[in-house]
Amino acid sequence: MESTIAQQKVSTGIDVLEKNHYAPLVGKRVGLITNQTGIDVTGKSTIELLAHAPGVKLRALFAAEHGITGNEDREGIADTVELKTGVKVYSLYGTTRRPTAKILANIDILVYDIQDVGARYYTYITTLGYALEEAAKYKKKFVVLDRPVMIRGDIVEGDVLPDSVKSFIGYYPICVRYGMTPGEIATMYRSIGKLDVDLEVIKCEGWNRSMWFDETGLLWRNPSPNIRNCSAAILYSGLGALEATNLSVGRGTDTPFEVYGAPFLEAEKLADMMNAIYVAGVRFHPVDFTPTSSTFRGELCHGVRIEITDRNAVRASILMIKFANEIRKQSHLWDYHKDGFRTMVGTSDMISMFDADECTCHITSTFNAKAAQFEHYRLPYLLYK
Predict the structure, then answer these.
(1) Residue 25's domain is classified under what CATH number?
(2) What's the domain count of the chain?
(3) Is the pTM of this model over 0.85?
(4) In 3-state terms, the chain is what percent helix, strand and coil (to 5)?
(5) Residue 335 — φ and ψ, nearest 5°?
């Protein structure tokens, strides 16, 4: 999984803003939506940079899921105070998930700086959409300090979310792995949402769509507690939906989203079945594990560890279809009829096809066709080659 090309140096939006002496924010009262991933190329936090930037008035911080430090893994996160600056942190994952009118009354500009993973059900981009809507409603300028797509921006896969299942874990009509930066998502949503908002994207410099995060030269910060490396991020972009079923996805282990299992599965048999059908870019190894939290906490699970052998070849949504189908065949105890699973996948077609025992090739061809349509649809909103 080591990068095959020399690392390049990418400047993110905060680096470019810093280089330009924070020009769009000078003289303005700023509200910053960020977390531990909001750092410049040296590792200094965007919070500290804006707090000490000449002429910039940092008035409020907003925290998405997992909190301002990114280590919370629970619902109902409360407001707090950022320790180094003393600035109030308003939770957008507690009693409200949108900046309120009261808070926005004391702000001129909302700034967004969070590193995303690139999976539709990763909720940071929903927070981005909610905040953009509130900025439009209350006539506040919105600035996105852009960041690269962690798992490449030129690979699109998975089903497109229909409006009928729109929710906090899926807010846009996009593929599961959509290959767009936060700035591109904001640009798209302003258009399709018909939002009357003054949006400015401070673009990255030196990034192109074929780059993986570890090829950018940027510092890694876990975007959330259970995404700890690029392999986990890749697998999460398809297999993450499985956590909405009665399957452990490795939460509560040292390798979340790299091991999958349940007490009712047979590890050796499942690994053999998956290796026999061949899925590009991955290999399966039998494993037993006992999660210390989440699904099957304290119970011995049997399943597989998924090794990525060629990350450029992996298509995590196709992997999810084939893997889920083999689990379904192995045990009638696996429950894939949960509403959360349907919402994360984006369609009930896959579940219906499983019930009808149809060939997975029909499901994959459906997904591929939807992805091809979305790849064309997103073209007007792309900011990078």
Answers:
(1) 3.40.50.12170
(2) 2
(3) yes
(4) 35, 20, 50
(5) -105, 105
